[in-house]
Specification:
By secondary structure, the chain is an alpha+beta fold. It folds into 3 domains: about 110 residues, Arc Repressor Mutant, subunit A (Orthogonal Bundle); about 55 residues, Winged helix-like DNA-binding domain superfamily/Winged helix DNA-binding domain (Arc Repressor Mutant, subunit A), CATH 1.10.10.10; about 100 residues, no CATH class. Helix content is about 45%, strand content about 15%. It is built from 13 helices and 10 strands. Strands 7-8-9-10 form a 4-stranded antiparallel beta sheet, sandwiched between helices. A two-stranded antiparallel sheet has the order 1-2. Helix 2 crosses helix 4 and helix 6 crosses helix 8. It is globular, with a radius of gyration of 23 Å.
Length: about 300
C-alpha cells in the first residue's frame, strides 16, 4: 500500500510541477528526496526547520489557479509525504505537549536503528487484514476495503490466505473472523466511555450502524471524521465537550438512556475533568453536535 501511495504522491507532484513549467521535475524530486533523508539522518526536524535547512529546495508551485482553494503549494512538505509513504521518513518526537500537534520528522533508519525491510503488496495486505480482524473482528469485506483504502480483490486474497471464517452478523451481512477467534465471550456489564475524536473504535468500521445508530450526522463531519463520543453498553449515545468557561465536561446526549447510564457517564466526565486539570485541548475535528452546542452558548 505504501508503494501505491508513494507512486500516487509522485505522480501528483510531477503533474503540478509540469503545469508550472518546472525544469527537470523528475531530477528535482529525486534530489529533494535524497536531501531530505540525509538532513533527517540521526536527528529530528519539524517541517519549518526542514524547509530552513534545505532552503535550496524550499520552492512552491501554483495549484488550482482561479479556484478559491488554489494558490501556492510548498513542495518540500509534499516530498516528505512521498517519503513517509515509501517508508524512508517517519514522524518522530513531538516538541509540544500531548494535546498539541508539533511533530518532528526523522529518517526511518534512524528511528528503527536499522533499514526498514519492506513487505511486498500482498504480504502487507495479509498482515494488515490479520491485525484488523484481531482488533475489530468480526467485520465485513466492505469494512476492510474502506479501512485499507484498497480493493476487493486484494482483501479477498488476504482473507483466503488467512483462512478467514465467515460468520452471520445481526445486520444480515457476512462478517469474518480469524480461525483462532471463535471462543465464546463472557457477558460484559454495561460501561460508560468517553472517547476522543478519531478514536480507533469510532473509526474502525465503515458499516457503523450497530454502534452508531442514527447519530452519524451529529457526530461525523462532512469528510467522515468522527468527533468526541459518549458510549453506553457498547453503543454511541452522544458526545461530550469541555466547557468553554472551565474544566468541567459536558455530556451531550442524543438519545434517552437509563438513569444508571447518566450517572456512569457523569462519573466518567468528572474523572476526565480531574485528569485534564487546567489543560484545554482543542478539538481538531469538532462534531456538528459540538458546534451546535458551542454556538448556542
Amino acid at each position: 500500500m505504501g508503494a501505491r501511495v508513494a507512486a500516487s504522491e509522485r505522480t501528483n507532484l510531477l503533474r503540478d510541477m509540469r503545469r508550472n513549467d518546472f525544469p527537470d521535475p523528475e531530477g528535482w524530486i529525486d534530489a529533494a528526496c535524497d536531501a531530505v533523508v540525509e538532513a533527517l539522518t540521526d536527528r529530528g526536524l519539524s517541517t519549518p526547520e526542514l524547509r530552513g535547512a534545505l532552503a535550496e529546495f524550499d520552492m512552491s508551485v501554483q495549484v488550482s489557479p482561479g479556484k478559491s482553494y488554489g494558490g501556492p503549494s510548498p513542495l518540500l512538505p509534499r516530498v516528505v509525504n512521498l517519503l513517509t509513504a515509501r517508508g524512508d521518513v517517519v514522524r518522530g518526537v513531538s516538541t509540544a505537549p500531548w494535546h498539541h500537534a508539533r511533530n518532528t520528522w526523522t529518517s526511518m533508519a534512524s528511528w528503527l536503528g536499522a533499514e526498514l525491510e519492506p513487505l511486498d503488496a500482498h504480504r502487507g495486505h495479509v498482515e494488515l487484514v490479520r491485525r484488523w480482524l484481531h482488533a475489530y473482528g468480526p467485520g465485513t469485506e466492505t469494512d476492510l476495503v474502506w479501512w485499507l483504502g484498497s480493493t476487493k480483490t486484494a482483501v479477498r486474497k488476504a482473507l483466503a490466505e488467512l483462512e478467514g471464517l465467515e460468520v452471520d452478523l445481526e445486520s444480515g451481512d457476512v462478517g469474518y473472523l480469524l480461525p483462532d477467534d471463535l471462543a465464546d465471550l463472557d457477558e460484559v456489564p454495561p460501561r460508560a466511555l468517553l472517547l476522543p475524536a478519531l478514536d480507533p473504535t469510532t473509526m474502525g468500521y465503515k458499516q457503523r450502524d450497530f454502534y452508531l445508530g442514527a447519530h452519524a450526522a451529529d457526530l461525523f463531519d462532512s469528510t467522515g471524521n468522527g468527533g468526541q463520543t459518549a458510549w453506553w453498553d457498547g453503543r454511541i449515545v452522544g458526545g461530550w465537550m469541555q466547557r468553554p468557561d472551565g474544566p468541567d465536561i459536558e455530556i451531550l446526549l442524543l438519545e434517552d438512556v437509563p438513569a444508571s447510564a447518566q450517572r456512569a457517564l457523569r462519573a466518567r466526565a468528572d474523572e476526565l475533568a480531574e485528569w485534564l486539570g487546567d489543560q484545554r485541548p482543542v478539538a481538531g475535528f469538532p462534531s456538528p453536535l459540538m458546534r451546535r452546542h458551542r454556538d448556542s452558548q
